TrEMBL record, chains A, B:
Alphabetized UniProt keyword annotations: Calcium, Ion channel, Ion transport, Membrane, Transmembrane, Transmembrane helix, Transport
Lineage start: Eukaryota, Viridiplantae, Streptophyta, Embryophyta, Tracheophyta
Membrane spanning stretches: 12-30, 108-133, 157-176, 307-326, 359-379, 399-418, 506-536
UniProt organism field: Vitis rotundifolia (Muscadine grape)
Pfam family of the protein (one): RSN1_7TM
Membrane topology: Multi-pass membrane protein
UniProt name for this protein: Uncharacterized protein
InterPro entries to which the protein is assigned, alphabetical: Csc1-like, CSC1/OSCA1-like_7TM, CSC1/OSCA1-like_cyt, CSC1/OSCA1-like_N
Length: 705, 705
């Protein structure tokens, strides 16, 4: 058991490493040679061009202006200067709402921390049950501040129960406000945007095969019959593919265009055919967001795929140790020697042998955890979702289950997840919360350390972008020939939703569960939310370039996982109190989960449709406005080629390059040319009219003498 | 424990009472005086007029043709003569599909019974474990035919596991075929019907209140904006109510009419407003089916109502014994003497005292069970559903939960439901199926008796219609003045879905659970299904008059409850086998529930939309056909006044009666007049063109000399 000093030592180590990362970042980012690693977003949106033009050779690589070294931490206030509206214009709604999760964490936990520290800690400390126990017992200083310090059957538990009620009400209130805001932001975002192709387009899956007719003819016939006033056409893209490839590869799928948002909204939300497994319509994802490989999966195979993937995820969550143990048993030194006998003299050295014996068994586990998000993504792809945004949300959910079972429960209840599953199956439903509840206060120190390592130092390392930095410079040295190559070498990355959302949700879970149990954990959570908010705000503004825009479609998941955390905390508190012989409190607490579930159901009905459907009122209003302002708009021409299979896009791009190469025999391309050619193809029609805020430009000129 | 002879005695008693009921029915039904009790459906659809005209006074009351007494059982073949198509035309799709549940039972259980008796009974009997035990032990003869007779760790259990697989596959196959057929029948029924007002009408709830505008104006404005090409109008009915009543009673609800089925289908299936709790649209129920009292319930209160009702149902299912015990403690003899002292001399008589002491405590329970369906219906009404058909489905679901816990589980596990709940909460999830599974074979004799009492004799009493018979004759004696009064005194009743469906589903559950455990129970189930099929077919043809037509909307519930029975049987078999030390079989059986659930999910996706939505293809096809065949149709006039609040209907009816009374001062109405006035008002436009099949009319003339 860790003492307060242990925590102090761990805190200093982690704070120091976080500062080391920040310092390294601050020094690296002002070197012109790293400019494309730390400010790629500004290159992409055209606010910044190559820094190489205006300096001598050394100045191109290293920052010679020593004044800027003295102000190396000034990125922090700068990261706060952009307003939310500017962020939405600059980086999209997804990023802006992603940042709101951190402010939500701050808003929820700031009052909770203050209340818990002011009220619960004195209540716990003054109980003093544990002071009578000897130091050698499994009691840490942290425990004296926790609920463990209150003697059984004490009436002081009413403080804890009251606080649980207060916190639940407060968290629900904040969640409601936030859901309301995000839903409004989403509707406002969708309404204020310029015309977007996906508003007029519906994706139709499982088009039945009519012999003697092409898919395109069938689609045309069906929609001309059933949506006579609104249908425009389906898309040459698939038609072209039919010509290029053999007939077997025709996909029974089409992107169908309508002449109005109203017509598309109607088609996307209604059932088309008698047989509900044919002519499945849904909103088309935006063109960047389409995952083309999954479009052709037939309906029947979808439910089988889902079954198989669910079973695999279940196995992965509960039995992942089995294959790893197997690999570990193979990857021992004897096995290595047998495979590579020439290594024997090296391995037999005592120092190296002991190092390898300590290192090899852990390697398999580390590799597994490293590739886990990729595995989850592959599983989601097998499930057959057709949009990248959905794929990321689904793998994020899978990863969350893994973290919940193996990080949260796995740290509290000792033994592998498989052993837990076994023991849970053989315990009564009322026993499980007791088993977990009673060990919760004892694990507070572990989770405090976890927060510091993963939440503090880990987040600080995010801003350093060590991997992209190394890869960029390697590419720059060996591969880059033209400015266009340099554009490609630049890897801005994006918010990694499948990994970031689950760990965020884990922090919410830890904060909510420990709020009444061990309040001293809360300040560590608060520091995480504040620090991560800074870092990600900076990254969103300067680095990340989102691959797609889903309009904050992930929010309902964030909301419902926080609700799930509330429910878990209530159950565990019930279990914990029942071991404290405060069983009479159960009737007092039983109302909480029921109320929380009712609140969740209400929110689901009230807000979720805003994330899943497009109201006709909205569609009609936009249609009418557009007809007034642009009476001569040719919507058919606008929609043509919007959804082009990537196979054609790469063709066109190559043709473009060919032409350019022919041209370039005589003149070298200017950077401005290449910059203009880099944004997403014009048919996507994203009219971001934002200019980089003046202080950014200003700062950039500062960095260049 | 009952021996085979006990079962035999019980069977003879029940068979005799069933025959007594049938005999009484056969004699009563050929008396002309009872004609309106046993053939009301034919009076309502106009195929039969009063039998009084063509005989002398005695002949009007009693059947004097003794020949008909000899052929008194000939209703049975007659009940089979009508084809399914004729039944659909005669009594509607609801009734026809209701009868199909019984044939489904026969189709499922006939092969299962044969296989189980031929394979499993010999396997069980030849094991002979129980023959070594002495007769005094708790072993009945039935048990020797059951799985209990197989010794622990026997390899013979592979027969049972194999049979469980075979039965599951067979039942799923039959369920799939039946769901497919019923879905097709529903679509065909909807497509082949004449024009119906509900196809053009959408009910809009939670119309927002705009100050300075009437609800009607707001609705007009909203739908003229958002559905400009399809909207016709909303309905004077509510408008009129506004004029009649004070402004407070205006309901924020409207029936909105469209000029095409397509327009209505679009409006019913899409989200209208930004705020998903306003402008809630859904298909209007048919006018007969509307439950007007619930229309005005606002959205927020709906979720609270649902929560309260769910909690009440939970309490009712698990704690219903508490209030009954309380009432019983009040309703003892002492209490009775205190309330009614004048009864003391009578009560003090020893014979009467012992009778009452045996009778009174049971009375509270009997009254409770008698009013339970009504209570479930009241609870469903509180939940706020707006169609009678939905209300009946919901109360049927509630009643099913009650039966499942208190009849099925309650009979297997001794003790009150509350005690069960308590013990289940303190057992591990794997222990519960064992506890139940191990007592299942022992309760087979009880359920055999239950099937005979409730399923054989109970069903036979249904055909006698004792209550409507008595009430009709009482009314006839004291109240009936005119032929119109006689029409009203006639109470045809209807299929009592809230009570019949749950008990049907209980029989499926019993059959499926006992199929591998105690196969000897199956023939009793088979007899029930066959016998009840006869009885209900007769009732549907001759007696019942459905109050509404939902197009077999209850089928998805029937399907999913049978699936639930399958899952229960699989779990219980796993539990049972694990107590037989055949724990190795668990991995063999674990695949079954997973496959069953997958099958259920597939069926849900494949067929359920046919019961919930109206495909646009279908709507457009009917619209187009109608425009071709009836180009001059004035749809607006057709829809006017279709949805009239009952308050106006009663006004109009009274006016009608007043006029008639004035007219009738001079001439007495002929029966044909009154028959014509009785069908549902003409604006419903149900064009049943069916004529009663000739043999029915023939039979009627036979009965009259």
């Amino acid at each position: 058991m860790a003492t307060l000093e242990d925590i102090g030592v761990s805190a200093s180590i982690n704070i120091l490493s976080a500062f080391a990362f920040l310092l390294a970042f601050a020094l690296l980012r002002i070197q012109p040679i790293n400019d494309r690693v730390y400010f790629p977003k500004w290159y992409i949106c055209g606010g910044r061009t190559s820094p190489r033009r205006s300096a001598n050779f050394v100045g191109k690589l290293v920052n010679l202006n020593f004044w800027t070294y003295l102000t190396f931490l000034n990125w922090m206030p700068q990261a706060l200067r952009m307003s939310e509206t500017e962020i939405i214009q600059h980086a999209g709604l997804d990023s802006a709402v992603f940042l709101r999760i951190y402010t939500l964490g701050l808003k929820i936990f700031l009052p909770v921390t203050v209340l818990a520290l002011v009220i619960l800690v004195p209540v716990n400390v003054s109980s003093g049950t544990l002071f009578f126990l000897r130091k050698e017992l499994v009691v840490s200083d942290i425990d004296k501040l926790s609920i463990s310090n209150v003697s059984p059957e004490s009436t002081r538990f009413f403080f804890h129960i009251g606080m649980e009620y207060l916190f639940t009400v407060w968290i629900c209130y904040m969640l409601y406000k936030e859901y309301h805001n995000v839903a409004l932001m989403r509707l406002h975002f969708l309404a204020s945007q310029h015309r977007r192709v996906e508003q007029f387009t519906v994706v139709v899956r499982n088009v039945p095969h009519v012999s003697g007719h092409s898919i395109s003819d069938t689609v045309d016939h069906f929609f001309q019959t059933n949506h006579p006033n609104h249908y425009i056409g389906n898309q040459i893209a698939l038609e072209r593919q039919r010509i290029l490839k053999d007939p077997k590869s025709i996909m029974p799928v089409a992107f169908v265009s309508f002449n109005s948002r109203w017509g598309a909204a109607v088609c996307a939300q209604t059932q088309q055919s008698r047989n509900p497994t044919l002519w499945l319509t849904n909103w088309a994802p935006e063109p960047r967001d389409v995952y083309w490989q999954n479009l052709a999966i037939p309906f029947v195979s979808l439910s089988i795929r889902k079954l198989i993937v669910s079973l695999t995820v279940f196995a992965l969550v509960f039995f992942y140790m089995i294959p790893i143990a197997f690999v570990q048993s193979l990857a021992n030194l004897d096995g290595l020697e047998r495979v590579a006998p020439f290594l024997r003299p090296v391995i037999e050295l005592k120092f190296i042998k002991s190092f390898l014996q300590g290192f090899l068994p852990g390697l398999a586990l580390k590799i597994f955890l490293y590739i886990l998000p990729t595995v989850m993504m592959i599983l989601s792809k097998i499930e057959g979702y057709i949009a990248l945004s959905t794929l990321e949300r689904r793998s994020s959910a899978k990863y969350y289950y893994f973290m919940l079972v193996n990080v949260f429960l796995g740290s509290i209840v000792t033994g592998t997840a498989f052993e837990q599953l076994h023991s849970f199956l053989h315990q009564s439903p009322t026993q499980i919360p007791r088993t977990i509840g009673v060990s919760i206060p004892m694990k507070a120190t572990f989770f405090i350390t976890y927060i510091m390592v993963d939440g503090w130092a880990g987040i600080a390392s995010e801003i350093l972008r060590l991997k992209p930095l190394v890869i960029f410079h390697l590419k720059n040295m060996f591969l880059v020939k033209t400015e266009r190559d340099r554009e490609h070498a630049m890897n801005p990355g994006s918010v990694d939703f499948p990994e970031t959302l689950p760990s965020l949700q884990l922090y919410f879970l830890l904060g909510i569960v420990y709020a009444v149990v061990t309040p001293i954990l809360l300040p560590f959570i608060l520091v995480f939310f504040a620090f991560a908010y800074f870092i990600y705000r900076h990254q969103v503004i300067n680095v990340y370039n989102q691959r797609y825009e889903s309009g904050a479609a992930f929010w309902p998941h964030v909301h419902s996982r926080i609700i799930a955390s509330l429910l878990i905390s209530q159950l565990l508190l019930m279990g914990l109190l029942s071991t404290k012989k405060a069983a009479n409190s159960t009737p007092l607490l039983i109302a909480l989960p029921i109320l929380t579930l009712t609140f969740h159901k209400y929110c689901k009905n009230r807000f979720e449709p805003a994330f899943r459907k497009y109201p006709l009122e909205e569609a009609m209003a936009k249609d009418t406005m557009e007809r007034t302002t642009e009476p001569n708009l040719n919507i058919e021409a606008y929609l043509a080629d919007a959804y082009l299979h990537p196979i054609f896009q790469s063709f066109e791009e190559e043709e473009l390059v060919d032409v350019r190469v022919d041209k370039n025999q005589t003149h070298i391309p200017s950077p401005s040319e290449s910059v203009v050619s880099s944004p997403s193809p014009p048919q996507y029609a994203y009219h971001y009219e934002v200019q980089p805020p003046p202080h950014y430009v200003h700062h950039y000129h500062e960095a260049e003498p």
